[in-house]
Design a protein that fits this description.
single chain; 557 residues; alpha+beta; GROEL, domain 1; GroEL; four-stranded mixed beta sheet; 18 helices; binds adenosine-5'-diphosphate; binds magnesium ion; chaperone; ATP-dependent protein folding chaperone; thermosome_alpha; nucleotide-binding; ATP-binding
């Protein structure tokens, strides 16, 4: 009885769940490995796609690591870190998202036997960090610059990088076609940082080869009123007026309260309303613009008015599209029609409304600043076009990266094998346990070529042995050998133009190592009961209440 009465030290709230130590670390490693296993099969040109069906019933088919990780809805706290690195890889470089998850998972998998044997994780972390620094230095050393080439040559090289990215995607079959398109689009926006200057429009139907690039802006025809059909649908060198105002007959009684003493005054108010709108329309016409676009509605009155004066108009243009027209055609979006000076009008060589599949499109091409491009994507199912858009996004990011820091490394696992060899060699010069850890890190890097083989149905052991042998050659001529996805053997990735920008690898190695070290440094997870559902909270409160009652009862006894 006495022992029951002893006061308990309560450190954490009732219901708090903690687990700690080696067991916790191992459980985290297992969770991360499980996530790695999910995305594993999507790597490379022969990688499979994932169909993700969420609770709202929408279906996504994707091969993109970041997209899959986002949609997986992972609840394990440690495994969530992988979602974050995939996302950051996506926003930093745009490609290599599967690679980064796979590397992180493999680093931890290699660390697991050491943790089981009682190695302190700080030792592992230190060695992993050293290995990562060495690896990154080596990537930089091996990277080949594509600087100093002529524009045409450079375009060709960039298209190779884009093709490598696209080869692992659903649209990989048409990679050359899309790679050229992506390079042209990126070249069009120059070194502007605003990626949204490249528009991607999706039009279901047709063949993917029907996709095309507009050297300007294209957007779907907006909602239009009667009178629209009488407007001309094609202009050469038109002046373009961009507005952010409504051109509609507005009943002013909604803006102000008006008291009338004489019914005849009512007419004057109606007249005033008409005068306001006609005044606005006159000013638009006087500006000399032949194309009027507005972010807000352009009503039936205005549509007819413009039609009578051979002017084209479109209301409710999406903001992004309007801004892209402004950037391309050189105009400024106006919030008032007073004082429209010629400088605020844009222009382009050809404006046209065209039929694309089942849709009408407004197309502005030959824009003076040329700083924008639009890719109109065609293809069968919705999911297909969505995935095509994501793939193009990856390719666009890669080409932009390659334009900015124009160094590339051989892909297909070649660079990974080369760093792995380098680290193994390096580890032999180190005395102590660290040698084993760096060796494991080196082994983990081989996951990329091994997985490329596995996914293609090749004998991974066989191919890897060949690669190891090639890379071990003293002369260094085997350094760019990677998996040959077509024959199941090995081939010179450089010669085959399987190129990746060096930043993709550098960022992937860096992020994956950081994530692995982060997980290795966690030895306790504390789960706060508050994070559970509201119902759980209520139950907890009731439990506490009952506990109080029991306490009183005990004292009485
Ligand atoms: P991630 O999301 O990491 O970019 P991918 O599925 O795009 O994953 O696969 C990228 C890997 O596939 C890279 O290691 C790249 O070198 C390799 N790869 C791409 N094209 C080829 C090819 N034609 N032959 C061999 N390997 C390739
Ligand atoms: Mg990729």
């Amino acid at each position: 009885m006495a022992s029951m009465m002893q006061p308990q030290i309560i450190l954490l709230k009732e219901g708090t769940d903690t687990s700690q130590g080696k067991a916790q670390l191992l459980s985290n490693i297992n969770a991360v490995t499980a996530v790695g296993d999910v995305v594993r099969t999507t790597l490379g040109p022969r990688g499979m796609d994932k169909l993700i069906h969420d609770d709202k019933g929408s279906v996504t088919i994707s091969n993109d690591g970041a997209t899959i990780m986002k949609l997986l809805d992972i609840v394990h706290p440690a495994a969530k870190i992988l979602v974050d690195i995939a996302k950051s890889q996506d926003s930093e470089v745009g490609d290599g998202t599967t690679t980064v998850v796979l590397l992180a998972a493999e680093f931890l998998k290699e660390a697991k036997p050491f943790v089981e044997d009682g190695v302190h994780s700080q030792n592992l972390i230190r060695s992993y960090r050293t290995a990562s620094t060495l690896a990154i230095e080596k990537v930089k050393e091996l990277a080949v610059s594509i600087e100093g080439k002529s524009v045409e040559e450079k375009k060709g090289l960039l298209a190779k990088c884009a093709a490598t990215t696209l080869s692992s995607k659903l649209i990989g079959g048409e990679k050359e076609f899309f790679a050229t398109m992506v390079v042209d689009a990126v070249m069009a926006i120059g070194d502007d940082d605003r990626l949204n200057l490249i528009g991607i429009k999706k039009v279901p139907g047709g063949n993917m080869r029907d996709s095309f690039l507009v050297d300007g802006v294209a957007f779907k025809k907006t909602f239009s009123y009667a009178g629209f059909e009488q407007q001309p649908k094609k202009f050469l060198n038109p002046k373009i007026l961009l507005l952010n105002i409504e051109l509609e007959l507005k009943s002013e009684k909604e803006n102000a309260e008006i008291r009338l003493s004489d019914p005849s005054q009512y007419q004057s108010i109606v007249d005033a309303e008409w005068n306001i709108i006609y005044d606005k329309l006159d000013k638009c016409v006087e500006s000399g613009a032949k194309v009027v676009l507005s972010r807000l509605a352009i009503g039936d009155l205005a549509t007819q008015y413009f039609a009578d004066r051979d002017i084209f108009c479109a209301g409710r243009v999406a903001e992004g599209d309007l801004n892209r027209v402004a950037a391309a055609a050189g105009g400024t979006v106006q919030t008032s029609v007073n004082n429209i000076i010629p400088e605020v009008l844009g222009t382009c060589e050809i404006f046209e409304e065209k039929q694309v599949g089942g849709e009408r499109f407004n197309i502005f091409s030959g824009c003076p600043s040329g700083r924008t491009a639009t890719i109109v994507l065609r293809g069968g199912a919705d999911q297909f076009i969505e995935e095509a858009e994501r793939s193009l996004h990856d390719a666009i990011m890669i080409v932009r990266r390659a334009v900015k820091n124009s160094t590339v490394v051989p892909g297909g696992g070649a660079i990974d094998m080369e760093i792995s060899k380098y680290l193994r060699q390096h580890s032999r010069t180190i005395a102590g346990k660290s040698q084993l850890f760096i060796n494991s890190y080196a082994k983990a890097l081989e996951v990329i070529p091994r997985q490329l083989c596995d996914n293609a149905g090749f004998d991974a052991t066989d191919v890897l042995n060949k690669l190891r042998q090639k890379h071990a050659m003293q002369s260094g001529e085997g350094a760019s050998y990677g998996v040959d996805i077509n024959t199941g053997g090995i081939a010179d990735s450089f010669a085959n133009f399987v190129w990746e920008p060096a930043v993709v690898k550098i960022n992937a190695i860096n992020a994956a190592t950081e994530a692995a070290c982060l997980i290795l440094s966690v030895d306790e997870t504390v789960k706060n009961p508050k994070s559970e559902s509201a119902q759980g909270d209520a139950a907890g409160a009731m439990g506490r209440g009952r506990g109080g009652g029991r306490g009183r009862g005990m004292r009485r006894r």
